[in-house]
Write the structure tokens for this entry.
Amino acid sequence: MKNFKHDIMLSCSLKYHGEKKCICRATQIGADRLHGTAESARVRGENSMKKEFSHVPETIDEKELYGFSWMEHVTAIPSPLLVVTSYKENGKTNATMQSWSTFANDNGFYCIFGSVYKGGHMYASIKQRGCLVINFPSADIYAKCLKTIENNGYENDEIEMSGLTAERASLVDAPRIAECFLSLECEYVWEKEIVPESGSVVMCVKVVNVCMEEDRFNAEKKGRYGESGYLYNIHSPRNPETGKTEKTYIGILQKYKAEEEL
Ligand SMILES: Cc1cc2nc3c(=O)[nH]c(=O)nc-3n(C[C@H](O)[C@H](O)[C@H](O)COP(=O)(O)O)c2cc1C
């Protein structure tokens, strides 16, 4: 997928804060601060100094970021790649690529979506039916999942049109994607805007059923990590000093060492 396409698709859901642009240097490190960062490199036993960025770097034009903060690209923190499925009001299947999400435990297991566009089908169908499925694709079907964006018409059965198979969820009124190795059936709990008047919401949903391929929960077989496991969105990392921009990458996660070995 072309990077710009990804951003344009997302631009509809995220407000552009271009007016916030200030002409500030990326880093203006005073003598004390410089000493501090060099000191921290020494403490870490490394040669690479820490640098600080609190204003948009001169190398970045915020107008080109389609509503994302420059910090998104300077940090490029990976987040899990999900496909949220639901039934639209007309009964057709809906599929929405989602990232910027996390999971939380509090008397149950919850997903917190960081940014759900209020004008999209996902938001409308979850509000209407109160439920959804979170599907985890592996790399071999990622391209098909991405096609759901091209097939995003209200009259479309988006899962089938994208070459994937829809199956009814067991406990909620939503479809699952059969090819995904893990599907979480969920119920809507609450939503909140990060800032007033935002076009998107943070949404919390509760997982009520876990459907997983047995080869995945068996670590001696496929397991959940590595090349056929969970995918991560690595959103176009940037070098704030040179402005050098990388493509958006799809990441995988390898087990490194057991906790106690580090
Ligand atoms: C990798 C990736 C991650 C995305 N993450 C989000 C997201 O977190 N929130 C969002 O509103 N849109 C996100 N999008 C964009 C939506 O998937 C896209 O706008 C989609 O067409 C909306 O579908 P819907 O109208 O059926 O909800 C993402 C797109 C991609 C490719």
